[in-house]
Fold:
Amino acid sequence: MPPYSRSGRSVLGRTVGTGIRVVRLLLRGSVGSGRWVTRRAGRARTRGAGGEVGMVRLFDLHAVSCAGDTLIAIGLAGTIFFNVPLGEARSKVALYLLVTMVPFAMLAPVVGPLLDHFRHGRRYALAATMLGRAFLAWLISDYIHGFGLYPAAFGVLALSRAYGVARSAAVPRLLPEGLGLSQVGARASIYGTVAGALVAPIGLAAFWFGPQWPLRVASVIFLVGMVIALRLPPKADSEPPERVPRPLRALGRRRGDRPLGRGRPAGRLVIATLIGAATLRAMYGFLLLFLAFAIKKGDLTTVVFGRDLGAKWALGVVGGALAVGSFLATAIGTRLRIHRPTAIQSSSMIIVAGVAVLAVIQFSLVMVALLCLVAALVSGIAKLAVDASIQERIPERLRASSFAHSETVLMLAFVVGGGLGLVPFNGRTGIAVAAGVGVLAAIRGVLVAARLRGEKLAGRPLGDDELTGDEPADEPGDVAPTSPAPAQSSSPQYDSPGLTPPGYHIYRPSSAVGRPGGGADDETSRESPGSLS
Structure:
């Protein structure tokens, strides 16, 4: 064999060996880096949850939920908006709003009371919402180009909101020491946002094979979420009732059991913050849809600093501003203890109104993106204020209903704002409409903040005894809480199970069902009806 052949083979062998060693080192470094990142992320997650195992798992569940919702949004956006002409896209978006979001108003009177009544099985309710979303996501992938997409999308939306209601109601039961309700809510939102950002490239890669593939990946992710929900600690549930709950009875509310009834200090504060958050959410929906169609139509210039970005990049700038604003809201909320929610909302509305007026005067893509950033930021903080108010001021037995009402109001506000954004305004005219609404909302917010300046949140869930002052006066015929009851009427109020107030058997189990002719033991153990809430 010629010498040069042996030399060539030795060079080739050394090259291959070096390549193998390099690949091995790269793999080892990648595995080591992955482990380091995983450890750091795990420590950050545990630290953010205050070291509470239940809260860590709740964070994981929320991350999975947000990741699945992101993949569903990627699959639907390409089908409804991007790949169709302008006129058809406008009609498809309007149909989507009408068919999938307007019926969402049914959730408040149905889902909330049911979740309240079955709060002792909250983990299973969360798991059921995950399983239902997995099934419907796969169903949407099969009907992605047909009308069946819309009812299935409504089902996903309904289950997503039901999940949010049940999760928010579980947060106070898993709250770690040293953290406020608004801080925990914001940290969970950041965790979910990061999870959504991490799966977005996966969704875009799956979309390259077809719009149905992100939905199928979402289905698998929701199944993982079902397992995580079942692994939540038992204290996420309320105490089990003495009697099996009746679903139909859960839908009926006595006047004193309405979560946001008039005349309650708690109700006044929650309603005030909810109206402010709904106004900002409507502006968010308006800016999202109006600017999307304005850019697609050419009503908004796409020139930034003398360079034409084009419609797609301009749309990315607006969408990115909204996303960054939402992320900043949750990031700020992790360190923000909300004590005066109405004052925070009124200040936020003033800022939004000022930026909107500037955007009308200096109508450009940069100013519009700044308006989107600020609107998303203050809308996210306003939502955290609503959640903190409900978690602190509403009794646990009514908390899920209150969250269902608030989610419904916020969703309908988004639909109203988005529907207004579908009106083909001229670009500057549309921003002027948003500015006018912002100015009116700011005036209203200042007046409400002045009227409720004495209302202050403590940053923790209040007990039933602390919330007694928020309840309406006793009905005629109820025993006055300060008056001793006669011995012969120790339990006439609640002898009939049908007259037992919702949740009475959970919070006062010793006297859930009165015993005829109760003696002295009955009298000493019975609690006053005025302290039920």
